[in-house]
Structures are given as structure tokens and as C-alpha cells.
Write a structure and sequence with these properties.
Layout (H helix, E strand, L loop, with lengths): L34 E4 L3 H9 L4 E3 L6 H12 L6 H19 L5 E11 L2 E3 L5 H11 L3 E12 L11 E12 L4 H9 L20 E5 L10 H9 L42
Parallel strand pairs: 1-2, 1-3
Antiparallel strand pairs: 3-4, 3-5, 5-6, 6-7
Helix pairs in contact: 4-5
């Protein structure tokens, strides 16, 4: 399968209206990023932006508990492993974002779960539950599973394959033996309430993760090496998604040290393809 070029003008008529992830003063012609991230995760967006990968975001709100309950019931005596559950949720997010966009994107859905001794530790949501979980997790080692799902929704003339597939990246991480005072202070920040496992490695929770074994990007929910392999399966090189480099040659412009903010894509729901 030949590699599909990332043509800045491709799909311009059907792409949603949003500013690209570029410095407005840059000399490069404005265009729509090809990658659409079906997630509101700041960690995933920051990972892509730091890697120079242009993208837009279209978060979707799904009944994750209901989706998992239905899947577990259907599985019967063959329960789903945590790595399979995160992949299922990543798939549902990618499919939902694809249906709600105007088309022409490579859509990436993602989801993460922390597993400790075979038990899944999800988002605590409530302070009391977060504190209880941290008292149980401290000093222990768990496995963080991050599901990735791709939907190639590009037009065939732009190299689209129509493929929909995914994989899970997992890594082991060991937590520090926190004091009760540290746990209470961390929970009081509100940071752990809405994230898988009740921690973030790229925020206030960073000092509480002693070590990571495996792909470090998987801890924030997006494995760049895995993304590269998934894109290759649809004939797309990850370098084709890189933002144009502003070398400061344009009048009044200068190289940027920090990535520009990533725009959200308006939810412009379209009927699902038959």
C-alpha cells in the first residue's frame, strides 16, 4: 500500500471550520490538520503537540459504564481483560467522533485504565474514593493500559482506506509510599478525581510515580510508537502529520519554543455511512 501524502488542501471543502495548530504569523499556508483526536484529555493533546503532530480535537461524551456493562454481559463466562476493555472504549470514541465530524480525517480514539492485582482502577470522581484508592495503591506496582483506535475516514482519492482497527499499549508503574498527609493534599487539588487510576504523571501526581517500565507515553494515554505503527498500517507516515516548521524567515515572525494551542472541532453530526 503506497503512502498517502498529507496534502494541506485535501478535503478543505468538507473539513470543519477551525484554526489550524499553527502560529498565525507563520509563512506556511493555512490548512486543516488531518488527525482528529476523539478525546478531551489534556495529556493526550499535549503529547501530540509536543511531538509536532498537527491535530484537532472532537471530544465525545459516552456512557462508558453502560458500554462496558453490555460488553461484559455479552462476554459471559469469558470476561474481557482490562486491555480489551480500554480498546473497546477507544473504538467507541473514535467511531462516535467520526460520525459527528464532516469527514476526511484520520480519527484517533483513546482510553486508559489502571490495573492492580487484576482489579481495574478507574476514575474515582469523588474525593473520598480517590483518597481510599490512593491509600490502597501507595507503594505498589500496577499496569496502565491505554487503548488506541484508528478510523481512516479520508476520501479514497486522498489515500483513504476505510480501515478501522486498534491496539493497546501497556506499561508497569510503581507508586511512591505516600503519607496520609500527601494523599489528602493531592486529593484536595481535585486533579485525581477525573483521571484513570486517580493520578497524572504530567501534573501534581508526577512526584508520586517512582518508576515506569515500558512506553512512558502510554502513562498519559497516548503511545507515540504505537501511533506510528497504526498510521503505517494505513500507508501514512507519522512525519506527514508534523506541523510545518517556522524558521523565523517570515517578516515579523520568530521560532516558537512552545506549541500553539490545539483547536477544538465543532460537533457537526452527520448521518453514519450505511
Amino acid at each position: 500500500m503506497s503512502a498517502a501524502a498529507h496534502d494541506p488542501s485535501a478535503g478543505a471543502a468538507s473539513a470543519p471550520s477551525a484554526d489550524p495548530m499553527l502560529d498565525p504569523s507563520a509563512s506556511a499556508e493555512e490548512h486543516e490538520p488531518l488527525l482528529l483526536l476523539a478525546s478531551a484529555s489534556a495529556g493526550r493533546r499535549a503529547t501530540l503537540a509536543a511531538a509536532g503532530i498537527e491535530h484537532q480535537a472532537l471530544p465525545v461524551d459516552l456512557d462508558e459504564d453502560g458500554i462496558l456493562a453490555a460488553a461484559r454481559e455479552a462476554a459471559g463466562d469469558a470476561p474481557l481483560a482490562p486491555a480489551e476493555e480500554v480498546l473497546l472504549l477507544a473504538r467507541e470514541k473514535a467511531l462516535a467522533a467520526t460520525a459527528r465530524s464532516e469527514g476526511g480525517y484520520v480519527v484517533l480514539g483513546g482510553d486508559s485504565m489502571l490495573e492492580i492485582d487484576g482489579e481495574v482502577v478507574g476514575k474515582p470522581h469523588e474525593p473520598a474514593r480517590a483518597a481510599e484508592r490512593w491509600r490502597a495503591m501507595r507503594g505498589r506496582t500496577g499496569v496502565l493500559h491505554s487503548g488506541h483506535w484508528i478510523v481512516d475516514d479520508r476520501d479514497p482519492e486522498d489515500g483513504g482506506t476505510g480501515a478501522t482497527f486498534g491496539a493497546t499499549a501497556s506499561c508497569a508503574l510503581t507508586f511512591a509510599d505516600l503519607s496520609d498527609e500527601e494523599i489528602d493534599a493531592y486529593v484536595a487539588t481535585g486533579e485525581p478525581l477525573g483521571v484513570a487510576g486517580g493520578f497524572t504523571i504530567d501534573g501534581r501526581g508526577g512526584p508520586f510515580v517512582e518508576s515506569v517500565e515500558g512506553d512512558p507515553h502510554a502513562v498519559v494515554g497516548l503511545s507515540l510508537p504505537l501511533l506510528r505503527r497504526l498510521l503505517a498500517d494505513i500507508g501514512l507516515g507519522i512525519h506527514e502529520l508534523w506541523a510545518p516548521v517556522d524558521d523565523g524567515s517570515a517578516e515579523g515572525s520568530a521560532p516558537e519554543d512552545d506549541p500553539a494551542p490545539v483547536p477544538d472541532v465543532p460537533d457537526r453530526s452527520r448521518p453514519a455511512a450505511p
